[in-house]
């Protein structure tokens, strides 16, 4: 699965302002409502429900909040680079500044998991994440994500 199948150019936010995890999820929910024609409150509630199961802060300043929506058509992704990192209850207790939101239709079991795995593989590369952190241009960030998303899995370097 290529990232460009789930991430559109207008779903990249280069300088998102948030001061807390809750505010970050609210801002992402509002942006998703606008971009994907879904109810922002429903998105927010689903994201909060998922966070109660365990933080989607995967470490190294990254979070991949995700959830399933009944009326959503297809997988949709949104990427945000935060102006300033926020506490997110991440597994390494480090604040988060790069976020990839993934929303899937209720029945998208395997596709949802494949998309999560693909996003996770791409964002594991620390030097790639530094490139994302180094740009405040949404077009440049989108191009980086698409380029990395189209790379064959063996081309993706896992940083240690």
Question: How would you characterize the overall build of this protein?
Answer:
The protein has 5 helices and 6 strands. The protein has a single domain, classed as Mannitol-specific EII, Chain A (3-Layer(aba) Sandwich). With 160 residues, the chain is an alpha/beta fold. Helix content is 41%, strand content 25%. Residues 152-160 have low confidence and may be disordered. The protein has helices at 21-36, 40-53, 109-123, 126-133, 138-150; strands at residues 7-16, 57-59, 62-63, 66-69, 76-86, 96-105.
Using the coordinates above, name the CATH class. Alpha Beta
Please give the number of β-strands: 6
Residue stretches low in confidence (pLDDT < 50, at least 5 long) are 152-160
Share of residues in strands: 25-35%
- Write down the domain tally: 1
Assign the CATH architecture.
3-Layer(aba) Sandwich
Radius of gyration: 14 Å
Gap between N and C termini: 25 Å
Structural class by helix and strand composition: alpha/beta
What order do the SSEs take from the amino end to the carboxyl end, as H and E?
EHHEEEEEHHH
Mean pLDDT over the full residue set: 91
CATH superfamily: Mannitol-specific EII, Chain A
Q: Could you state the oligomeric state of the chains shown?
A: single chain
The biggest beta sheet reads: 6 strands, mixed
From the spread of the alpha carbons, the general shape counts as globular
- Number of distinct helices: 5
Share of helix among residues? 40-55%
CATH fold-type name: Mannitol-specific EII, Chain A
């Amino acid at each position: 699965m290529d990232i460009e199948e789930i991430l559109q150019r207008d779903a990249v936010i280069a300088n998102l302002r948030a001061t807390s995890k809750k505010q970050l999820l609210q801002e992402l929910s509002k942006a998703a409502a606008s971009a994907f024609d879904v109810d922002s409150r429903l998105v927010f509630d689903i994201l909060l429900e998922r966070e109660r199961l365990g933080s989607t802060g995967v470490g190294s300043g990254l979070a991949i909040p995700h959830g399933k929506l009944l009326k959503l058509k297809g997988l949709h992704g949104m990427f945000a680079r935060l102006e300033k990192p926020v506490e997110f209850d991440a597994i390494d207790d480090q604040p988060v500044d790069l976020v990839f939101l993934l929303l899937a239709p209720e029945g998208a079991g395997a596709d949802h998991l494949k998309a999560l795995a693909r996003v996770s593989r791409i964002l594991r590369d620390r030097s790639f994440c530094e490139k994302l952190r180094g740009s405040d241009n949404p077009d440049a960030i989108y191009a980086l994500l698409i380029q990395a998303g189209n790379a064959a899995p063996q081309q993706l370097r896992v940083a240690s």
